[in-house]
Amino acid sequence: MQSPFRTRVKICCISSIAEAQTAIQLGADALGLVGRMPSGPGVVADELAAQVVQATPPPIATFMLTSETTVADIVAHQRRVGANTIQLVDAVPADTYTQLKALLPAVKLVQVIHVIDERTIDEALLAVQLGADALLLDSGNPNLVVKELGGTGRIHNWQVSRRIVEQSSVPVFLAGGLNEGNVREAIETVRPFGLDICSGVRTNGQLDAQKLEVFIKLVQQLA
Ligand SMILES: O=C(O)c1ccccc1N[C@@H]1O[C@H](COP(=O)(O)O)[C@@H](O)[C@H]1O
Fold first, then answer.
1. Model's pTM, two decimal places?
2. Of 24, 129, 155, 223, which has the fewest CB atoms closer than 10 Å, so is most exposed?
């Protein structure tokens, strides 16, 4: 039976205003703009990210991905880009959410949780308790010498993700290696609030309208 809830779609690694427009026309609910990262293919300059934010109409959400971990650096990054949502791709100190909400009350905070093993569940629930407005489950590895904080093209253990969705009191996005071939299984296994995709809708690094259209249509049929 079809769920009465629509699975939201966030298109990440937006690298131009034209890509943003294509994503919106094809049904994206949110756009992701990747800031400076230790690794990954999707980074864009803050100036370009700010232009995309300016060109994005409501109700489309603009997610600014930041690898910064201090309140001052995160706020400075948000002020440069102007996005309405901050996606924290690395772990941050416990009081960060409260401080960011005081300084940026209109901006939503999405904490990325890199799903590694069952211990990740506690990490996710703690972020919710501390003030994250949503979670985004990805497949990076922050424990490597050169941190992987997303954009890996890999899936992770969706059974762990499912348990996080079941226990979270805030919306949960699923990311990491999604594509048209695995999206059905992803939705059926994890039942996320939304999906987040980068490499699965790209060809030679560019947003591929055909792949995106297929992906979004599949999500709309399955949700
Ligand atoms: O894309 C990047 O370069 C990147 C770097 C560091 C953190 C996050 C990054 N992108 C995010 O990673 C997810 C998953 O990407 P993929 O679908 O597995 O290719 C993507 O949705 C972005 O949010």
1. 0.95
2. 129
